[in-house]
Amino acid sequence: MKNLDIEESIASKKLIFEESWWDKFDTFTNYFMFVILMVPAIFGLGDIKPSANSEFEYLFYICPFIFGLYAFYCKFTEKNLKEIKFTIHKEDAKQRILEYGKKYDYRISKISNNLIFLNEPTSGYSLGNYEKTIMIFFKDESILYTLIKESARLNVPVLFSQHIVRIDLKKILKKTNKQTINTNKRSGFSSFFLKD
Question: Of 5, 107, 115, 143, which has the maximum CB count within 10 A?
Fold first, then answer.
């Protein structure tokens, strides 16, 4: 991410950085792809005639429409920073997040006073070393975070693991005993969705 403005990003609760033409093209391509997924579903829903099989037809068209709409929303809001408040000291919160990153073998980078990146490989099938990054900005009594995924050609949004990460971050920031952070193991369900 070129020339990321940390202070402005925190103030606006949105990633502020210098977007390249490739970033803009990638965003447009994602929007186009999800709209293409939704448009046939809309027309298909209008053409359904009441019959014994119409419930299956509704399901056939509604599922891709809902998925396309959700993916479009995820891409549209991926640069927005979500906030989690905490009541512990800021340095304690930072230390807990670093422990969380080490525990789950994230590559930790960009450690500064107000920013930590937790990086995880996106897929074993990608060409090159591409990662999904949890970007965590620190305020006095809260964190602001988002997940960004990069790949070889199309940087599709993070669809499901963002919810698991939110649950994990809320959990570790509410702990009162540091040792309890290391006793909780991520379930198979969480591990499965964290690889999306």
Answer: 143
